[in-house]
Every structure is written in structure tokens, then in C-alpha cells.
């Protein structure tokens, strides 16, 4: 009898366990009870068939069915540590932190540290670009090639100097080769051409300046000549105007010409005054009224 009882108990327990779906139910007090769905937590488990559940808070999540009364915390992504800020993280799955552009996570599963991508220097090229989970990889430029800036995608080949050109500067991993004309006659021709061009410019400039100055001198001479002619004409007009004024009537030297008596050359009684011999001037004396 005892063996039969144990066998029945085992069969019953196996039946109960097999009836409970492990993903959505759990066994409690020999009963198959429901769990709370993803994004929720169990608030009270007083009703096995219909438990009371509550949504997870912001920054929390629950990825599957659960009988727990707490949700899992989302990781804190600090922007000061070069993480991207999480906008509305999920409540039903883990939202991993992601690094900012130019940085990558040191661990794939748990991104807890962001490290800056390696910068390929001049003289190198990028053979693998960095991502949010991996670093960039660089390779040195091969002989005969170069790169001049950071993070170059390719290395350029050196310039090939053509026939008649010399290498003025050899190429390196960070600079190109510089070629110059190596033919002496060619250099002389270039020098003579430049000199002739400069002389032509100087000659043309001198001619233009000379023509400009000649024109200015001619205009100045014409202006001075016109002023001189005008002055001469004005002087002639003035001379003709004052000539009649300078012509005085000539004095008659004949002493026989009678002089009209005036107040200055007659006496008080009306007799003319005669000049005495040997005197230059005539003095008037009062006449005597006595009768001769």
C-alpha cells in the first residue's frame, strides 16, 4: 500500500508540473499560477489565477514573464564618459549603452567604457574603419607612396618626373616628389623670355609717360604763348590811349608876340609891368599918384 501511495503522488506531481508552462506560469503550493508579462512586475500574488501586476518605472525593464516584485534597472549612460544619451529606453528589454562618434566600447556584451578611435597619422592609411564596438586599424604607406593628412583612406603614388626633368626633392611617406626642368638651354630660354617680357613692359610704360609729359608741355607752352600775346595787345592799347595826353603845344620863342595883360602883369593904374634888364623876375611897386 505504501508503495502504491508514493507512486500516485509522483504521478500527480508530474501531472501538475507538466500542466504549468514554464515561460508563463510557476508552481506555488502545488498550484500552477500565472506570471506577470514582459515590462511588468508582480505587485501582489494573492490570486494565483489572476495576479495583480504593475508596469516598470522609467529606467527599468523586465524582458520576460516573471513572478518577481521588482524590475531590472537599465544601465546609466553618462554623456561625460562619451556615452550617447538614452532617449526613452525600452521597458521590455535591456538597452545597452552606446559610445559617441569617434569612440568604441571595450567590451561587446557590457559596454561600460568608451575609448577613442586610433587616428592614422600622415604616412599611414586606414585599413579598417572604427565602429561603435571596434577600433580603427592603420597601415604604413609603402615605398613610393605617401599621405599628407590624418585618417587618409589611401596612399598616393609619387609623381614620376618626365624626360628632361630632375628630382628637386625626393618623395617620402608624407610628401610627394618635386620635379624641375633640368635642361640648361630650357632654363636660359625661360630666363630670356621673362627678361624680354619685363623690358617690354618697361618700354611701353616709358613711352606712355613720355607722351603724356609731351602733351602736357605742349599745352603749357600754348597757354603761356597765349598769355604773352594777350599782354602785348593790352600794353599796345594802353600806349595808344595815353599818347594824345602826352602831346603838349610847342611854345613860341618869338618875343614879339603881344602878351595879353592879366592881373599879374599890370600895375594898379592899369599900366603894363616891364621886366628890368638883369632880373629874372618882375616885382610890382606901388605907383605914385603925383602928376609929372
UniProtKB/TrEMBL annotation:
Cleavable signal peptide? 1-19
Q: List the disulfide bonds.
A: 99-114, 120-138
Residues in TNFR-Cys domain copies: 98-138
In Pfam terms, one family for this protein is TNFR_c6
Would you say which domain of life the source belongs to?
Eukaryota
| Compositional bias segments (type: Polar residues) | 257-268, 283-292
Q: Name one GO biological process term.
A: immune response-regulating cell surface receptor signaling pathway
Please tell me whether the keyword Disulfide bond is annotated for this protein: yes
Ranges for the TNFR-Cys repeats: 98-138
Q: Where is this region: Disordered?
A: 244-292
Q: What residue ranges are annotated as transmembrane?
A: 190-211
Q: Which SUPFAM superfamilies match?
A: TNF receptor-like
Q: How is this protein named in the record?
A: TNFR-Cys domain-containing protein
What organism is listed for this UniProt entry? Onychostoma macrolepis
